[in-house]
Amino acid sequence: MSAIDIEHELTIWMTDDIPTRMFYAGRRWRITDTPTRLRHSIWDQPTDGHALYGWRFQATDEDGATYVFDVYREEAGWHVHHTYR
Predict the structure, then answer these.
(1) Cα dist from 72 to 9, 47, 54, 64, whole Å
(2) Structural contact between residues 60 and 66, judged by C-beta atoms closer than 8 angstroms
(3) What is the mean pLDDT of residues 22-26?
(4) Are 80 and 8 in contact (CB under 8 A)?
(5) Chain centroid to CA 36: how far?
(6) What one-character DSSP code corresponds to residue 51?
(7) Helices (DSSP H) in the chain: which residue ranges?
(8) What angle do CA 10, 74, 51 make, to 5 degrees?
(9) Do the bridges between strand 53-61 and strand 36-38 make them parallel or antiparallel, or are there none, so unpaired?
(10) In the chain, what is the greatest distance between 2 CA atoms, to the nearest angstrom?
(11) What does R_g of the chain's alpha carbons equal in angstroms?
């Protein structure tokens, strides 16, 4: 079995610099817990000398599916690093 990375469009809306909702994989999501800021030290990918910052939060879509997301921001925009069910 091999892992396949699929990149989906990700848009995050913030209130007072904290994520409150997002659009990801064609679905609208509400942030349903208190987001945790993630620092550079947790990322397991190369950062090319740039400091990464991101968030971990639980989000629920319109159908009631709930996941935990680790997201990070780069120059090109927001990306999902991991999701947890």
Answers:
(1) 13, 11, 4, 24
(2) yes
(3) 95
(4) yes
(5) 11
(6) P
(7) none
(8) 140
(9) antiparallel
(10) 42
(11) 13
